[in-house]
């Protein structure tokens, strides 16, 4: 199926299929690129990157560019190295960058496309659930600074997004859960009418049939469309998509791989809901729905032991939403809900100034006492395998 | 005086004054930035950067960020280092990046502003003649790759441009000549009606009164306005501004500082004019006018000895305009004139496919035989002092 994506003045098609990689390659060839630069991480390269290059070869010039897997490679050095390699191979203005992978690859390749020759064509081939949802209705091509996540980047639109649910079969359970946490976010922050679908479809063991995944993806895109259709820069209504992300980013950054992006955002949503509840904005039922949906998705509802909450608090000071509210003292700028699907607004944005101490108090209560659990395995996050 | 700059949907003011740094600082303060990040090279920092920080201090938070002087620092590593420093100091979305300097600083700071938090406010305070002309009607924030000049970057507009001719008094003669070559380019490629002004005002010794500079600047801006008003990305009519730049960039890159940007472009224009003449497009008088105006501006009309023409030819292969014409064989994509102010078009662009051998032949004829001259001093280009 084809969904036409409209973001302000930007339009591009999203193709969603199952077991149709041949068709995907035909769509790439229709772009008549002087060269196809396939960008993958080291996990996705053997699974799908080489396959796509092989299918293109003989009919077009195609290169495979591989970067290290994981959030720690999403920095300007990686982008620079890949751009130099691409330029050395002969990439020019008529070439197309094809991001085959999860969110990390999508952002790295997206920023490459934005910066090479001040903008060449970009196609996303998302291979994770998160990327299928995020690469479509977000034009953010953001990478990490030494000071925090996603502080550096730009806005850049793809020519098209080519998604095939069959690639999700190789996705580890951890990554599927991560994606479903973002789906839950859409239901909580934007689209309450998705709730029944999720209550019926979510699987704690992440064992999803393709037929179950397609409506979940379509509904999630519909949720995004509601808030970003006229806000391609995600600084007004689109900011509802940042629900759970203030605390979530700080947790993810501090956890060094012990939490997936989605699970970190899930915990961030629980913190936001608790904070909103204690400030008298959100009722107990909606707070409970947060934990219910996240549990059904297979996600944790407690902060794993071993995460340094002081470090989390330090990271929160660098959250990139602070500047919107001009905060200076001990306060964070967060998306809070007044009810399901209804963020609270300050002036022209769905952001609220929240006392720092309250956030840290709620966070501490969500933490697993050290003596009750085994130490978490501190594996680097595989963006996608 | 204030000139309103319009580039497609982008609008910002250009203020041109003389001896009015106080007023300039007042304009900066009107932006109510959470922090002013003044970006300079190591030459401009002691001359103007520190002074502007001092004038802001006490009334606002201001930092001075200094990068090495010269084109060799215009790379992604410098941009990354400065961004990390700025973030560490507490730069946020409400901060303003102020580029105080020449074209190199303008591009470095411009890309910083474009990439930090996916775009924060930018003000240009150009301290060279080139920067006064280029930073205004060009939104290109481009830096160098290991493979060639300006291959990496994006389009980003400043909030305003604040120019004061008094700062040009500290500009070395070499840099003033560089700027005047760009002025000559505007007269040749775009605006023949500037010719008399230039014939009367150009000074080979670069000794210009402020009263002489202002009309030259205003006329040059008028020339740019003619071609880029509806082409903010400079890929259609605006490409006339690239006149002389194909060969010019390759010469400048190879010369390692022995040629200023403007002089390299001047030579590039002479090559383009000779090529166009030999192809039967351009008459002898207009060709002679190229040499006449460039000589009056104090610029060289011969390629200095010591520049490796094989290396220049190699660089030409990576020119970023190749992709527009889809060139594959021994040919370059160049802006050529059919008459003064009238570039030749191919399809929808003022670009022509030129045989590579002809360009190299003309270049060789323009070169000073090695035995006739002293070796050029290979000083690194001071972007501005």
Characterization of the model:
The structure is a homodimer of 385-residue chains. The first copy, chain A, is an alpha/beta fold. Chain A has 2 domains: 2-170, Rossmann fold, CATH 3.40.50.1970; 176-205 and 215-372, Up-down Bundle (Dehydroquinate synthase-like, alpha domain), CATH 1.20.1090. Chain A is 43% helix and 18% strand. Chain A is built from 14 helices and 13 strands. Chain A has helices at residues 21-29, 44-56, 76-89, 103-115, 129-137, 173-189, 195-201, 210-228, 245-255, 261-278, 284-296, 309-316, 322-325, 356-366, and strands spanning 2-7, 10-17, 36-41, 62-67, 96-101, 121-126, 140-145, 148-155, 160-164, 331-334, 337-339, 342-343, 352-355. In chain A, the strands form 4 sheets. In chain A, strands 1-2-9-6-5-3-4 form a 7-stranded mixed sheet, sandwiched between helices. Chain A has a two-stranded antiparallel ribbon with strand order 7-8. Chain A has a two-stranded antiparallel ribbon with strand order 10-13. In chain A, β7 (140-145) and β8 (148-155) form a beta hairpin. In chain A, α5 runs parallel beside α8 (210-228) and α9 packs across α10. The first copy, chain A, is globular. The two termini of chain A are 25 Å apart. Residues 378-385 of chain A have low confidence and may be disordered. Chain A binds chain B through residues 34, 76-77, 79-80, 83-84, 87-88, 92-95, 114-119, 140, 142, 145-148, 151-155, 233, 318, 320, 322-324, 326, and chain B through 34, 76-77, 79-80, 83-84, 87-88, 92-95, 114-119, 140, 142, 145-148, 151-155, 233, 318, 320, 322-324, 326.
């Amino acid at each position: 199926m084809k969904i036409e994506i409209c973001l302000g003045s930007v339009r591009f098609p999203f193709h969603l299929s199952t077991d149709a990689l041949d068709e995907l390659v035909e769509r790439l060839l229709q772009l008549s690129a002087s060269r196809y630069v396939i960008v993958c991480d080291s996990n996705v390269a053997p699974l799908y990157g080489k396959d796509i290059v092989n299918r293109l070869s003989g009919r077009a010039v195609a290169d495979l560019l591989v970067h290290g897997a994981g959030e720690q490679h999403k920095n300007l050095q990686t982008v620079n190295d890949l751009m130099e390699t691409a330029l050395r191979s002969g990439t020019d203005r008529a070439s197309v960058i094809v991001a085959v992978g999860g969110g990390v690859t999508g952002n790295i390749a997206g920023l490459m496309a934005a910066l090479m020759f001040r903008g060449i064509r970009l196609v996303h081939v998302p291979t994770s659930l998160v990327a299928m949802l995020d690469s479509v209705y977000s034009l953010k091509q953001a990478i990490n600074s030494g000071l925090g996540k996603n502080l550096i980047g730009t806005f850049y639109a793809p020519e098209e997004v080519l998604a095939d649910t069959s690639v999700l079969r190789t996705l580890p359970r951890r990554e599927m859960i991560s994606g479903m946490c973002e789906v839950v976010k859409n239901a909580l922050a934007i689209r309450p009418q998705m709730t029944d679908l999720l209550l019926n479809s979510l699987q704690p063991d992440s064992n999803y049939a393709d037929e179950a995944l397609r409506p979940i993806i379509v509904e999630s895109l519909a949720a995004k469309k509601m808030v970003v259709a006229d806000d391609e820069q995600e600084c007004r209504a689109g900011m509802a998509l940042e629900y759970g992300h203030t605390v979530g980013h700080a947790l993810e950054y501090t956890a060094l791989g012990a939490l997936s992006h989605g699970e970190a955002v899930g915990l961030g949503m629980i913190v936001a809901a608790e904070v909103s509840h204690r400030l008298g904005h959100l009722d107990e039922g909606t707070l409970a729905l947060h934990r219910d949906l996240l549990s059904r998705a297979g996600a944790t509802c407690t902060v794993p032991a071993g995460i340094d909450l002081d470090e989390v608090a330090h990271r929160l000071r660098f959250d990139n939403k602070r500047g919107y509210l001009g905060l200076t003292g001990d306060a964070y700028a967060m998306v809070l809900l007044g009810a399901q699907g209804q963020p609270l607004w300050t002036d022209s944005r769905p952001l609220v100034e929240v006392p720092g101490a309250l956030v840290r108090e709620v966070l501490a209560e969500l933490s697993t006492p050290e003596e009750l659990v085994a130490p978490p395995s501190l594996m680097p996050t595989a963006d996608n395998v």
